[in-house]
Amino acid sequence: MKRYSIGIGLFLAGMVLSVPLAADRNEKTINDNWDFKFPRQDEWERIALPHSFNADAYSSRDYYKGKGIYRRNISMESIDPERRYFLKFEGANKVAEVSLNDNRLTEHCGGYTAFVVDVTDWLKPGNNELVVTVDNSRVDVGPISADYTFWGGIYRDVWLISTPMIHFDMADHGSNGVAVNVSEVTGKQASVRVSSGLRNDLPRPVEVLVKNSIAAPDGTVIANNDKKVKMGSGQRMLVDVDFENIENPELWSPAQPNMYSVNTGIYDIKTGEKLDEVISPLGFRWFSFDADKGFMLNGEHLKLRGMNRHQDMAPLGWALGDEAHRHDFELIKELGANFVRLAHYPQDEAVLDACDRLGLLVWEEIPIVNRVDSTPGFDDNVANELVEMIRQHRNHPSVIGWGYMNEILLRAPGDNDLSWDGVRKHTLDLASRLERLLKDEDSSRVSFTAFHGSDRYNKVGLNIADVTGWNLYQGWYGGDLSGFDRYLEDQHRRFPDKPVIVSEWGAGSDRRLHSLSPVPFDFSIEYQQKYIEHYLPYIETHDFVAGGAYWNFIDFNVAERQESMPRVNNKGIVYNNRELKDVAYYFKAAWRDDVPVLHIATRDWDERVIESGMKMPVKIYGNVDEVELILNGNSLGKQKLENHNCVFNVEFSCGKSIISARAVRNGKEVEDVAIIEVKGVPEIGTGETLAVNVGSGCFFKSDFDKLTWLPDREYSSGSWGFVGGRDRSTTSEIFNTVDGPVYQTFREGIDEYRFDVPDGRYEVELLMTDVNRPSSLSPYLLGRGAIDDVPGAVRFNIEMNSVMVEENYAPSGGDNYFQPVRRRYVVDNVDGGIRVKFVPLSGLPVLSGITLRRIR
Fold first, then answer.
1. Taking Cα atoms as reference points, which of 258, 253, 194 lies closest to residue 395?
2. Taking the alpha carbons of 308, 310, 311, 313 in that order, is the dihedral positive or negative?
3. 261: which strand partners?
4. What are phi and psi of 18, to 5 degrees?
5. With helix as H, strand as E and coil as C, how does 469-535 read?
């Protein structure tokens, strides 16, 4: 760890002078009036920061990875020879090369931490051309592989800063040069050490006064400590000041995030003029992790109730302003969380400030994801990112630990692969190096690593961090929900001294998909609810589990993902536009005792299609004991809530209905009101379209034409449905359609589809696609692959009421796989029914959807 010489009485030979100096620091953003272009372009585009150059990630898996060039004119009326000038970049992904007036000044490796460039010697009066080339393709900088888009660009603020010649060290890994360390804190007293990095850029020695003061949450100054410092010309120095026995500190906690502040200033010792100043956050708290008892804060048990959070919002990518960051964490706090994992990278300073203010405990980590890389420089670059993250955010009381690896063996070679021994050794060596570095930089916090649900981490000896995070998805990517319970219990039994936290858990949901019988990986809103309602109570009721961080707070962009919503990981409990999903209120009901929670969970499915006499579930989330449901003014009775929810099975009439839920909590009435619109199953004889989501148990409502596709069913006399075959599905993207989920589920090996309908002329539409070719799959499916095990093209004949309509038909067209096929046919029904028959020729016939409409 880099240290500076201690300051009292140390200076270079020569007279110590007290001279008038240009006073105080000046800071301003320069986010406006930038130009941008790609290297092969001639024309510049005028943009403002924050900015990302990857709008293509919303439409393509193969989004641009390479360089983007930014330029800006910095106009200076004059240059003060008694001041230093700096540029601070809060974030540019992944590598930024900075030039000023054709002078290459620096290259910064790391897309998520700030860096500072001293431009004093290259800045001139008048116009100055600043050019920044950003490259999001470099493989010597983490991450190499990850389940999120590597948005390129200068996506955080850029600052122009000037200071006097004597100033806080701007070269301390992007930090403000001041470290605030709390020690020996109890409920009765605390001690603080303030370590200030100073620099004298004058060509002569000086003597200055370093003033430190601590202000209480109400702004009252409660302690002062001043120190005279003699500095030689060009000298860097570390000045330590101790505040001992601060009595009865107001402790920081999620319930009461009492924030103190430390004001550190450099003053001219003769005139008393302020030269430079830094204000640092300060909070008094202590904590620990225990393998049996979980997490303790300020001597009391606290379950870590948390979210993982990505810095993502369409159409901006990562280019969020500070207010957008703050809004996210206010929402997280509103839901009752007390903990966030900033996955998988350091985030904006505004984020840490918000967590301090709101009372959200933080696990922050560097982006080493899926695998380490053998590219020269990789290890050194990620180690530097770790130091930068810690030094830049070390003063925030919200931070309880630093992380440095996530699912690092996810893409590692198998045990029998010839490269495995080398990869294993490299990974272990890097983990050991980072663990030591982390503790050298900050021994007051814990270290975290996050593993996917594989015992391989234990076998190879990677379980070296203070706290083990497990990313567990039993009942989603594979297995059943109870597998989650068994896995954690097995780990605790085998490693009884290792503190454990569930660092990720989640299931996807697509607002267009709904099921009365949800199953894993159907992406229905209802299965996500079922999954969460199992996991959360287990985490809450088992003390050895320190807590959990749900994956993810929001639906976020992943250019390489396919599934029901290509380029979106839709496990969020909040849509990407920050609208809450219904299940978000389950968290709020479970986590908040201070406010009443009552929510009718129909907002995600407020338009439904039902058959006559069918009862539909209406779920209620709340932290009340009992709830009454009222439909259009008529009471449907009361139910007790268990696990913060209950379900009423309601028989609706067609049209719009008003639902009211009423309860009493702490003697006060609580009410929620929702509107639901119900339509009957289309009447085929009247010309309405009946659409069936073949091979799926889900309703699907198209965003495009608003048509609702009904769940599939087996044929019974007098109705409609399939004959033969089996339900199959794929995670692969179906191109050139907005209704991908209809094609991603299908009936394979189907014999017939039958409709018992009145005589007449009908239009029949068949939806098909051929997925019987390997697709480029994401490694994050954790063993859940696409349908890629059937060789050769599928070919079959199609007959409608014994008339051949397609002969030797291939949905792929011979070689056009993962493409939607929609074909309509006109059929005369004179026998009381329509029979669509599929005769296999090569492979097994497939059908994804079918519609029927009477036209005469």
1. 194
2. negative
3. 215, 281
4. -115, 115
5. EEECCECCCECCCHHHHHHHHHHHHHCCCCCEEEEECCCCCCCCEEECCCCCCCCCHHHHHHHHHHH
Question: 126-135 and 95-100 as β-strands: parallel, antiparallel, unpaired?
Answer: antiparallel
Q: On the CB side of 679, how many CA atoms lie within 13 Å of its CA?
A: 17
2-21 core/surface letters (b: 16 or more CB in 10 A; e: else): eebeebeeebeeeeeeeeeb
- Which residue, 165, 175, 228, is CA-closest to 197? 175
Residue 338: Cβ-neighbour burial (10 angstroms; 0-12, 13-18, 19+): buried
Identify the DSSP state of 604: G
> Cα dihedral sign for 379, 381, 387, 392?
negative
Stated pTM of the model: 0.93
Q: Are 640 and 625 in contact (CB under 8 A)?
A: yes
Scored b (16 or more CB within 10 A) or e, 810-832 reads bbbeeeebbbbbbeeeebebeee
Residue 23 identity (one-letter amino acid): A
Q: What is 57-109 written as a DSSP string?
A: GGT-SS---SEEEEEEEEEES---TTEEEEEEES-EESEEEEEETTEEEEEEE
Do residues 821 and 798 make contact, with C-beta atoms less than 8 angstroms apart?
A: no
* 826: DSSP letter: E
User: At residue 380, what is the residue type?
Assistant: D
> In the 8-state DSSP scheme, what is residue 44?
-
435: tokens are: 């663990």
> What is the rounded CA–CA span in Å between residue 542 and residue 294?
9
CA 23 from centre of chain? 42
Q: Give the whole-angstrom CA distance, residue 4 versus residue 172.
A: 11
Of 148, 151, 144, the C-alpha closest to 91 is: 151
Place of tokens 């949450």: 217
pLDDT means over runs of 10, the chain (856 residues) = 30 33 82 97 97 96 96 96 97 98 98 98 97 97 94 98 96 96 91 97 95 97 96 95 94 98 95 95 97 97 98 96 97 98 96 98 97 93 98 98 96 91 96 98 97 95 97 96 97 97 98 97 97 98 98 96 94 98 98 97 96 92 98 97 98 95 96 96 88 97 95 96 96 93 97 95 96 62 49 85 95 85 94 94 96 93
Place of tokens 């008529």: 634
